[in-house]
Specification:
The complex is a heterodimer of chains A (495) and B (378).
Chain A: H1 6-25, E1 30-31, H2 34-37, E2 54-57, H3 61-74, E3 78-81, E4 98-101, E5 108-112, E6 117-120, H4 126-133, E7 138-139, H5 152-158, H6 165-168, E8 175-181, E9 187-191, H7 202-206, E10 215-222, E11 224-225, E12 229-237, H8 240-252, E13 259-264, H9 265-275, E14 285-293, H10 295-311, E15 316-319, H11 323-334, H12 336-339, E16 346-349, E17 352-353, H13 359-373, E18 376-382, E19 387-394, H14 401-418, H15 437-440, H16 443-456
Parallel strand pairs in A: 2-4, 3-4
Antiparallel strand pairs in A: 1-2, 5-6, 6-10, 7-11, 8-9, 8-10, 12-14, 12-15, 13-14, 13-18, 16-19, 17-19, 18-19
Helix pairs in contact in A: 1-3, 8-10, 13-14
Chain B: E1 19-20, H1 25-34, E2 39-42, E3 59-62, E4 69-73, E5 78-82, H2 87-95, E6 99-100, H3 112-118, H4 125-128, H5 131-134, E7 135-141, E8 147-151, H6 163-167, E9 176-183, E10 185-186, E11 190-198, H7 201-212, E12 220-226, E13 229-238, H8 240-254, E14 258-260, E15 275-280, H9 286-292, E16 298-302, E17 307-312, H10 318-325, E18 331-336, H11 353-363
Parallel strand pairs in B: 1-3, 2-3
Antiparallel strand pairs in B: 4-5, 5-9, 6-10, 7-8, 7-9, 11-13, 11-14, 12-13, 12-16, 15-17, 15-18, 16-17
């Protein structure tokens, strides 16, 4: 490769790898045509775009193993991708690297209602799991808003949450076992179908590792019994403070609803425009509260919730009359992100967490920040667990507006950190927020996390350049950090 | 920090060279930085037999003086407490606010750090899960004296690797736990139990399955098992109306049963004598696991979760028992044994053992923390 630039050499090596991949797993599963590669440039966070060198459409576990082994031999990084719905750029490819697409690995391997387990491939869509479990009166609890399209493999990578994690926890609380292809191609089984296993809980560390510890090729999930009763209530308030206060009052009363979601006036306006969800007219904020469990419990607790809401001047409380009514209440909430597109040319979703009790105060601070930035913010949160989703509205035709939106989003994350919260409750750190990790954690904290990375993937080939602000060179003494050696896929301006 | 050598503590058959009881994370770090020998961290020492005996213990590091409840914000249902705080002490403070840490391992005096290190749980894991489901933040001191946090103080947080999971059940082999942050639950207003006799293993399985597949929401379903029969107790903890309604429904579902307000004395107790095992397996395999037990076995099973605590005779063939439950993803870990008995503490290793070894070597390259205590002699 004499006479070639570094970039040309990297591309040449990737094309060589593509040839070996074609020989190993079949030419039809290996894409290098630039037009085809374009589809995979970004995930749900469209601001970050990188064209991968090669895309592998894996159809079988062994396709993943062979691909990863060839990448390891060539020293070429790889990124795993599920449905590509992630919102932090976690599945953005590495330039001249390999993107392993898992959406064709979509078999339901085993349904075991007696043990309340299901074994699925990573490309299986979240909602399919609950659909398969339904005939046995069982369900899969994690329900991210994208559940109709997001994959279980992606959920494992991101430790996805959803509206119901207030009561039921996150993906990590519902994944029992995983088959994982490590960065050198070795296949290991973490966890299993029993509730405990001797030795270290490597599965617990793997779930939520955002693709940096290996590629999951099979997942064993835990199913729950469908509750006797599920009831949903929509409550309208004249002020955001009253809605937030009601959330605290419910928790203080010892009630643990399955979900407490909050939307402010701007988010309601957007949802109405998009899906006509018929939320209380004139509300400055609504709460969607869901209780589930034995009928007698749900009935009594709903009375209690209604009393608490009235005490905070709720002007309308409406209990879903039937499944259709309930679905409409949820449709308003679950479509809120996309709906904001109806009232603004562009928007930017952030994801931060604060201690629940600080909600009124932080909302006021967010509002001041938005005013200072001269931007509108629609708020949708998982209020029960303090998980904020500010939707920052802007017009990308206005010079500087995208940058201002991003800065406002990051300023909101700073508020979360100052309040003792987190820079992400469910979207992950990915590419977008890796610089913010240094605000939430010390260098020692981050170095310690990277010890895990060094054990799983010492050469740093699995999804490099994500999650950590500064990669650690494995084998070095703690505290010795290198400059970012992985190709940073961020392309100058975000947006 | 003075390191004493005048102690008579014996740790899983090994006499430590010395003992230290640091009172702050800084003191823990000083000890690890200023010494080079092997260190075995313990809390109150209630579960030292749960891991294999250390291959060496130059210093027994007790965390009992790290005993402050640092922060409790009732409205957030979150508490931060140092590793040496006894669970009972914490529960007492939380109860004043009608809250609890939903963990109920029975060992009296057990500390939070020890409970995390040993991954101890009790009957209510059916409803609330175990340490991994409740621990939301952790601070550890690594073998080289580095102090590192993971997780945080909010229930929902996916920033960075969740190292709390890795330290759970690690018996101090990756670092010394100094502080823990927990998700809390409201204390239930009422409790009630329904108890039914169980004639044999098949009936135990049938009754447990009836409850598991029903819409009942018990906080625990415990089986007392002794010589081929026993009794099953279903515990409901909720608002009074729900406890009443569910108890009545349980009696109908199970075809009878005694109603009581309190769980029986044996509820949640660990068995003693012989070799005490913690067995884990697919929950539906309960009757097959019970049938595989050697004669003379007794103990309790969390009947709907797939975990059992059983005492088996000291001369039982542990390898045969492990092989018999292997088809159900089963494992049997020794929690206690006669001092002179040589047993395979953890059982066989899985295909992830190489990876586990690499994790241990990254965190503790000198293998000075709890050496030999983990699976496979790590």
């Amino acid at each position: 490769m004499v006479g070639m630039t570094d970039t040309e050499q990297a591309s040449a090596r990737t094309l060589e790898l593509a040839e070996r991949l074609r020989a190993a797993i079949g030419a039809a599963k290996v894409l290098t045509d630039p037009a085809q590669l374009r589809t995979y440039e970004c995930d749900g966070l469209e601001a970050f775009r990188v064209r991968p060198g090669v895309v592998v459409l894996a159809e079988h576990r062994d396709d993943v193993v062979r691909t990863v082994k060839l990448c390891a031999q060539a020293g070429i990084p790889f990124v795993a991708r599920g449905s590509g719905t992630g919102l932090s750029g976690g599945a953005v490819p590495v330039s001249d690297g390999v993107l392993i697409v898992l959406s064709r690995l979509r078999s339901i391997v085993d349904v075991d209602p007696d043990n309340a387990r299901m074994v699925v491939e990573p490309g299986v869509i979240n909602l399919w799991v609950t659909r398969e479990a339904a005939p046995h009166d069982q369900l899969y609890a994690p329900d991210p808003s994208s559940q109709q399209v997001c994959s279980i493999g992606g959920n494992v990578a991101e430790n996805s949450g959803g509206a119901h994690c207030l009561k039921y926890g996150f993906t990590v609380n519902h994944v029992m076992g995983a088959e994982v292809v490590l960065a050198d191609g070795e296949v290991v089984h973490l966890g299993g179908s029993a509730p405990e296993h001797p030795g270290l809980d490597l599965l617990g560390a793997f779930v939520g590792s955002e693709g940096t510890l290996g590629v999951v090729t099979q997942v064993t999930v835990r199913l729950l019994r469908v509750p006797e009763s599920v009831q949903t209530m929509l409550v309208g308030f004249h002020s955001v403070a009253d809605a937030a206060g009601t959330v605290s009052d419910i928790i203080a009363a010892g009630i643990l609803p399955a979900a407490i979601e909050m939307m402010d006036a701007l988010a309601i306006e957007a949802a109405e425009a998009a899906v006509q969800c018929n939320y209380p007219e004139g509300a400055e904020a609504v709460l969607v509260i869901e209780l589930d469990g034995p009928q007698v419990e749900v009935d009594e607790q709903f009375e209690h919730v209604e009393t608490l809401a009235r005490a905070r001047h709720a002007f309308e409380t409406r209990i879903a009359a039937d499944a259709e009514d309930r679905a409409l209440m949820w449709k308003g909430r679950k479509s809120a992100f996309a709906a904001v597109g109806r009232i603004s040319p562009s928007y930017y979703v952030q994801d931060g967490v604060i201690p629940r009790t600080r909600l009124p105060e932080i909302l006021a601070s967010m509002s001041s920040l938005a005013d200072e930035a001269n931007l509108r913010v629609a708020n949708v949160f998982h209020a029960g667990d303090g998980n904020l989703h500010p939707l920052i509205l802007f017009d990308d035709a206005v010079p500087g507006a995208p940058k201002a939106a991003e800065e406002l989003g990051f300023a909101i994350l700073d508020l979360c950190i100052e309040a003792g919260g987190s820079i992400t409750g469910e979207h992950g750190v990915g590419l977008e927020k890796k610089s913010k990790m240094a605000g939430q954690f010390t260098a020692e904290d981050l170095d310690t996390m990277q010890l895990v990375r060094c054990a799983f993937d010492p050469d740093g080939l699995a999804n490099p350049g994500k999650l950590f602000p500064t990669p650690r060179l494995c084998g070095e003494r703690p505290g010795v950090r290198t400059a970012d050696t992985a190709p940073d896929p961020a392309l100058g301006e975000v947006f | 920090m003075a390191v004493r050598s005048d102690n008579n503590t014996v740790l899983a058959g090994v006499t430590p060279g010395g003992m230290a009881t640091p009172a702050s994370a800084g003191e823990v770090a000083d000890i690890l930085r200023s010494t080079t020998g092997t260190v075995v961290p313990v809390g109150a020492g209630t579960k030292t037999g749960w891991a294999a005996a250390p291959t060496s213990c130059d210093l027994l590091l007790r965390t009992t003086a790290l005993d402050r409840v640092v922060e409790h914000v009732p409205g957030d249902l979150v508490v931060v407490a140092e590793a040496g705080v006894p669970l009972e002490t914490l529960q007492g403070q939380l109860a004043e606010h009608n809250q609890m840490l939903a963990l109920d391992p029975p060992e009296p005096g057990a500390t939070l750090g020890g409970i995390v290190g040993a991954n101890a749980s009790g009957p209510r894991r059916l409803r609330f899960g175990t340490v991994r489901d409740l621990l939301i933040g952790v601070t550890v001191v690594l073998a080289d004296g580095t102090t590192a946090r993971a997780g945080g103080k909010v229930v929902k947080n996916v920033a960075g690797y969740d190292l709390g999971k890795l330290y759970t059940g690690a018996h101090g082999a990756l670092g010394v736990l100094v502080s823990t942050t927990w998700r809390l639950h409201p204390l239930p207003a009422a409790a009630g139990t329904v108890t039914v006799p169980v004639a044999d293993a098949a009936e135990a399985g049938r009754l447990a399955n009836l409850v598991a597949r029903s819409t009942l929401t018990p906080t625990a379903v415990e089986l007392r098992w002794d010589g081929g029969s026993g009794e099953l107790v279903v515990l409901f903890e909720s608002i009074p109306a729900s406890v009443e309604a569910q108890s009545a429904a349980a009696i109908e579902l199970l075809g009878g049963g005694e109603r009581a307000d309190e769980p029986p004395d044996w509820f949640g107790e660990r068995p003693t004598g012989g070799v005490v095992l913690r067995m884990a397996y697919e929950p539906h395999a309960l009757p097959r696991v019970l049938a595989a037990l050697p004669a003379g076995s007794a103990g309790t099973a969390s009947a709907c979760t797939g975990v059992a605590y059983l005492s088996v005779p000291a001369d039982a063939d542990l390898a045969a028992l492990r092989a018999a439950i292997a088809p159900y993803d089963g494992s049997a870990v020794v929690l206690g044994k006669p001092a002179d008995l040589d047993v395979d503490h953890w059982g066989p290793v899985a295909d992830s053992f190489g990876l586990m070894t690499r994790v241990k070597d990254q965190f503790d390259p000198g293998r000075r923390l709890s050496p030999g205590r983990l699976l496979g002699g790590l």
